[in-house]
Design brief:
85 residues, 73% helix, elongated, mainly alpha
Length: 85
């Protein structure tokens, strides 16, 4: 299967991909904020010693998960800007 580059995409597909990536980033951002709020609540109500380490895994993995999406969104925005859309 041939991999499409950003230069091969039509203008409509490029804008559609940008909107999809923005939506995914907004969704992950909201989830990250809710997770941080929940962890702050747990720390204040139970204390740091009573919380298992596995509860902190989403806080550490979400920024790593967001990096490829941010890089792809930057590349899509660069291609859109190059086409003057």
């Amino acid at each position: 299967m041939k991999k499409e580059t950003l230069a091969d995409l039509t203008n409509e597909k490029l804008v559609k991909r940008r909107n999809l990536l923005k939506g995914v980033l907004i969704g992950f951002g909201i989830f990250f904020i809710i997770t941080l709020g929940f962890l702050i609540y747990l720390f204040t109500s139970k204390g740091a010693k009573n919380i298992p380490f596995a509860t902190l895994i989403p806080v550490f993995t979400l920024p790593v998960t967001l990096m490829p999406i941010l890089i792809t969104l930057a590349a899509v925005n660069k291609e859109i800007k190059a086409r003057n859309l």
